[in-house]
Write a structure and sequence with these properties.
By secondary structure, the protein is α/β, with parallel strands linked by helices. It is about 15% helix and about 35% strand. The relative contact order is 0.10.
Amino acid sequence: MNGFSVLLMKVFRRIKNRFSGWYHSTSFLSGLEQYGTGITANEKVYLWCDHVTVDDGAYFYQNVTLWGPGRIHIGKNTGIGINTVIYATESVSVGDNTIIAANCYIIDSNHGITRDELIRNQKSTVKGPVIIGRDVWLGAGAKVLSGVHIGDGAVIGAQSVVTHDIPENAIAVGIPAKVIGYRE
């Protein structure tokens, strides 16, 4: 293959990738209930929820999944990392300027566990909405469970499992996540 052929292939690949990215971003936006301006959605952002609102400047990396019968709200300038899943039975809200790293899982419900009924046949239980405040950082692989409120400015360590509320500006790590300090 000569140099011109290689150059031509690179040009066509770039055109294809740009068009594909534009198409994917516009098809993602058209599925949202409400959205602001300047939203970026990389390819393969999955939207299986009818009640999603996204504010200005939000950024979605690839393989993000938003799903469930509930409401999901993503705040301004919030970034959601690769392979993150947000599931809402009732409500999940993520505040402005928050960073959610790769492979996080945020869910506002759990399976029922009554003994006399098959687990797979039981309805979901919800302790309450998940509320993630402004300027929060969820480290890679963090899990946030039903009924949790993470205060503004909090930092959640990688692989932590958040089962209880975390106060503002707290640094929490572990399984379950425990506060080990505060941002200064």
